[in-house]
Amino acid sequence: MEDHTSLPLEDWSEKHVSSWLKSIKIKDHYIQKLHDDEVTGAALMEISEDFLNRQTKMKPGQIQLLLRKRDELLKSTQAHEAKTSKQPVIQKKNRTDSPAENKHEPTAEKWNWQVNVAKEPDPAKGENTEQINTVRESSNKRECRPRPFDTEGMDFKYVKHTVLQPENGNTNLITPCHEYKSLGTAARLDKTRLQTKFAYEVYRFACGCMNVRANGTIHFGVMDNTQDTGYVHGEIVGIPVKEKDVYVDALNRIDKCVTDSSEKEQFESCVRSPKFIEVIDKQDSGSQLYIVEVDIEPAVSIVKGNVYKVSLPKFNEKTNKIEFEKRKAYRRVRANTEPISDEEMIGFYQRMEARDKRREEAESTVHQNSLETCEDLGRKLCVLLTDGKKYIDDSKQYIIVTNKCAPENLKHINFLLHMKIFCVFDFDPDSKSLGFCGQYREHHAVNMHFLKSYANESRLSSSDYAKHLHLYDQTSWIFCNGCNDYLGGESSCDEHTWIRTKKKHLKKAVSMICNEILDKGSFVVLFVLFSPVEQPLIDTFHEFYAEMNGHEDIVCISESKENYNEWANHAQRSCRRETLDQISIVGMKMSHIDVTVQTIQPSSAQYTKQLPVFNNMLCSLKPAEDERLSSLEVLSVNLCDNTNLETIQQEQASIERYFYKGGKVKWINFWLAEKQLGETVIERDAYLEVDQILDGILKCKKPVKSVEKITIYHQAGSGGSTIARQLLWNFRKELRCAVVKPLYPVTNVCQHAIQLREYEEKDRNNCLPVLLLVEDCDGEYIDDLSHELRNAIASMTISTPLCFILLNCKRSSDPQKKCKALPLRTVAVTHKLSEREKKLFSKKREKLLQPEEQLHPEFILTFVLMSYGFERKYIQDFVKHLLEGIDHASREASLIRYVALLNCYIQNSYISVSHCEAFLGFDVNPKPHKSFERSLTEEARLLFIHLRESTVHILSVRIIHPSVAEEILQQLSVSQPQSSIANSLLQEKVLFNHRFGRDDYIKFIRDLFMKRCKSEGDNSSFSPLIEHVRTVEKNPDKAIDLLKTAYTYFEKDAFFAQQLARLHYTHKMFDEAKDWAEVAKFRMPHNSFILDTEGRVYWKWFVFKDEALDKQNLMPESATELIGTALKAIECFQASEKAAKSNPDCMNNSGYFGEVDVGCRLLKLLSSVDVFSNNKKKLLKYLLTDHIPEEVKKPWHRFHNCLKGLQKSIYEALEWISEDLTYFQTDKNEEEEEKTSKEIEHINNPRRWLLKRSSVYASYFSDASFNQKISNKDSLAPLIRSMNIYQQGGGSVSAILSNLSDHKTQRAGSKLEDILSMYPEDPLREKLDHIDLVNYIFTQIALGCVLPDSPKLVTLQKLQELSLRFYKERNNKYPPSAFMISLLFWPGNSQDTGCNQEQNNILTSAIAALKRLYNDKIKDVSSRKKRIFTHFFLGHGKDLDRFIHKTKLEKYLKGTLNEKRLKWLSGEVWKTPEVTQLLKRVKGWTENGSVFVQGTCKDSKIKVFTSCYVSMPNTNENVTFYLGFSFDGPIAFNVQVIN
Q1: Between 860 and which of 323, 640, 660, 1524 could a Cys-Cys bridge form, CB atoms 3.0 to 4.6 Å apart?
Q2: What radius of gyration, in Å, describes the C-alpha atoms of the chain?
Q3: What is the pTM of this model?
């Protein structure tokens, strides 16, 4: 293929473009993508940033490089066209000028296109002449340095196309002068001609150096004459060397060149043997090239007093023989070797003594300097690791790249053990058993990985993948070349196999770590070369160098110079050798390195935490054990005691300023205050309250709970987190204290908390309680954690009552309101200060603002705001003053607006510094935090605070306080509403596409538009931002436009389309809502929530049309459209139900509620049509039979089948909801009815909703007059009876049992008796429908609970007889029937004491069916398992009277609804005498961790499932317990061993 540079740009093909992209160092995968997209030269000329970003997903750095080089190419093309029109040919210039002149001449026109110039023969290709392909620019070539002079056995290499310094003359005689010879033509001649040419140049140069007493090196394979060749002077090109002996033997002609025997010996002493230096080709052309070098060292002891002449050999082409020139003396003049004329010889001889003297002095000086000057490697090491500071920055993490470590070196790697290591790239396959890894594991916890672990084949987001690999938990140890003792088959391999199989994984690992996991400037890559270097380790350097955009934050340590030289020779493909030497510590003993580095490491890296123990002593928490408790930040007794006083004095001001400006309090703040080295942290009134509660829990003589919980509700920025941390700090010597890290699963936290409690304790029954701080988690998480901890404690039969105290610190907009739910265990923290607090804050403010403190109010704004009780006027004035000093049109002002918008609406949101830098247009910088902060204006620095908490793994910023962020938006809204800011934020492509920290940024933006506020009773329909635009700005259209823009930028996400549908129907734009619902369904056709939204579009549309319709004399034709809309809604809801059933990971019942709502409203509409309005019988006949009235036959011809199935569909939906409610307890309670709106009643109070809808539904099918006119033989008779029962509240198990919640038992009993009176006197003979029979029996059971003496009751034996029908039908899948049988056939006092095998089989079969049906119902949603509802408990009575409903027990529990719930969860209910007197303790036994009870036969046993918080013995014991009945089967509560 013709080279791309020989063609005009517009004629380039895809391959030409790929070749050019490779030459400018674009990454390979982007080159391939552009090739696949058919980017030709013409396309390259028009390509845009948007295309590169969207089509190739190219990152900004690569885009900038490509476009800049493309623009340069276009400009140079235009310049060339203008110039070549005047000067079409550039003539070759004869080499007659002096070298000094030539080296200042431009070697060729610097153009990247075809130029008509003659070209010197390519040294690597022979003497052929061809058109030059590319005129290279010397400025683009990297410089290199020559091999150290006169060194033997040194592994040194050159990189092709790097450039040596220009040839030079004599300097100080010791520093060698250099002469370059390309030897390109001669290298391919025959042996004789080559040797002649080589000897000629060497002895000519050697004679010149010896006569002027100057060291020198002549290089063969380096360009000297560069005119019109496309090369630059001094460029490394190399020559092929087939036989090295050819060059060595060439110098054996010395006897013919120098006739005098003494001079011959002197020449041999001064001229070193040729050295062959390998040339590394970045393009990997496959041909091996060398630079051949000869060193000349004329020591004064050898050459003193002599002037040398040589006869130089030349090959005579005519005679085909070697001839020798006349003897001449040569000398070095500047950069040339010139002959000495006869006229000059006399003067040259006269100056010989002076030259000898200078040489002698030079040698003496060098010797003296070598003794006096030695590189201070210790200081260099400290500077490299500390950036010139006194100590290593403990916030930086380290990536170690290393190879096999010899046993003797393992003694000297303590400095590595103390480093904050993020990961290790280990090329030693025996490292785990015999090397560095094994040594490190003795002191730290590590996660073992291989390179392929970073392949991310599951395509998780970078943050999720980091969690998946536990990268932030412990050091990641990456075995780059296998692990020999690993049984999974990851064995080591040779270099070639490694390159073929593992190198691609190395690229991915390095790229992910540098670009997605760690922030630039936050880590250092440390190469530690313990042993000889192989290619894979060198490749690792190339990858890090490329991904880190240079050598910044790369350091190399090698005790062996040979190992270093091997590494550096290959590493210089990417980086200059001089630069490598600058960042490397070479030749320093590992023992010295170890001691030196430890002296500059922060003391925090070298201490062991101490924990309190039960006997009032202390124990040490080993670092490895501490790291394994990865979900906890453990506080030690000696926390911060290791702080270096010298460094803390320098940093104290910034630490305190950060806190008082609004940053989260750090443990060092408390330590400084405790040691009276810094300002005290004010103890707010809320702290005293929490302290009092905690003290009361600890001093309680008879605690009843193993897990206690204290909740701190606080307004944002009011100091709630500080109070919680103060508590942990002050109790760290009495309790074991820890902070639960965010986003860790409950099971992990529970496991680590148990380990922390029992660590170094002799007896698990005698351990100190653990105080755990949990911040800003949802209620379900804290409940799950309590549940797991209680269950774990119970399973270990720990006798100590109090084991854990959960301190739940949660943000709330109304903390005082939240306190009313649990007043005994809840504390509110607000911005409002008490009189005591006002005095404390005022006094502290005056002290901080004293001149000697050098703190201005704006630098500690958050504290000043707090001291004024967050007075609105103060915030307004502050923000107004700052905004006046900011250029509102600047990018910085836009950044402030964006951060304020996120902080105002999204809790704990931030923008990474990397994003900020990209947005502000900074060049790539390895230390973004520093450069970003310096670049900000004074006003911006006051508004932003940098997040430096350990939980945030990237450097980021937020506004100093939420109230300030809110005020910024408020003041800006005058000129720029929030909707406009949000719209601009969405369209900031730089922020949206920035790679680093993208997952968090995208999540915050998504939440800004999508996340609804569902806390504290505020069940908004949309995100707070959208609600603001809708209501405050009163601009629904703008809200719609915002979501449309978001939909586009989030790649047409189906959930944004769903939100648009909801937003449109909220504003009565139903046609648009339908369209967006269909778009969402198209993208996610099987998502039950999206299908439900489509149903609600039609449901809302139906309601809107129905309310607008005139019901007077409503004709069937007028109702046709409404009926169609309603039936479409029902169809969508049924599709949602079907999708929900097929999804094992989701429980979505909203479709059933929607179907019932629409159905009931549709029945109301049908009953208002004139043909049915006064004739309910006619409507029933139409809906329940095949009859179709003539009036509706034609208008409703499309709906007849659907309408005739309406009764059945509503009935089945109600049954499903009822069944669901019998399984699970709801979060709300009936007592909250007054707080529940009709719109969300089915969510907050589903039982009440069910009763209401059941009554409404049944009212349309329960006509007393109609019922009287039909006979029992009529097919409608059972249905009408069922509907009448339905209307009275007896149509479902849930409705029947809800009567037991009535506090007036007589009223509940009368209602149940009325329901029973509607059934036939002999249900067995009447053969009731399955569901009707179940409802009948449950009505009997319920009546037995409230009125055990009612005449309507039948005997237990009669109910058992009725229920046998379900046992005989083995395929029965109706859970209430199995639950009913488990109640009726449970062994009791009234039953025969003998064995009844049939009853035993019936009971065990029912329990097995319950468990099977429960597993089908619960799916894989663990969060609902804890919500299983226990309906009945076994009491002391007989027959039906022995069943005690849960509501009867709850009457004896005192406290609020939440407090009652906690008593059930904690087991405190079993301490209530009134409850235990009602219940019977059942005898059973434990067997292998399960509880069993005897069935109706002595040899039978029934497995009883245990409740979540039961104390289970570890061994097989006889036990007693309280027995409960749920739809999951019988449950044992309060299990106790029989002593």
Answers
A1: 660
A2: 44
A3: 0.75
